[in-house]
Amino acid sequence: MTPRVLSIAGTDPTGGAGIQADLKTIAAFGGYGMAVVTALVAQNTRGVRSVHVPPPAFLTEQLDAVSDDVTIDAVKLGMLHSPPLIEVVMAWLERARPPIVVLDPVMVATSGDRLLDAQAELAIRRLCERVDLVTPNLPELAVLVGGPEATTWAGAVAQARTLATAADTVVLLKGGHLEGASSADAVVTADAVLPVEGRRVTTTTTHGTGCSLSSAMATLAASGLSWFDALGQAKEWLTGAIEHGAELEVGRGNGPIDHFHQLRQHVPHLRGTNSWTARAWRDSEPIRARVDACEFVRRLGDGSLEPDRFAWYLGQDALYLAEYAELLAHAGELAGTPEERAFWEHGSDAAVEEARLHRTWVTELPEPAPATRAYLDHLHATARRDGHEALVAALLPCYWLYADLGRRLAAQGRPGHPFGDWLRTYADPAFLEAAEAARSIVDRVADAAPPDRRTTMAAAFDASMRHELAFFEAP
Ligand SMILES: Nc1ncnc2c1ncn2[C@@H]1O[C@H](COP(=O)(O)OP(=O)(O)O)[C@@H](O)[C@H]1O
Ligand SMILES: Cc1ncc(COP(=O)(O)OP(=O)(O)O)c(N)n1
Question: Closest ligand to 13 CA?
Answer without folding.
Answer: 2
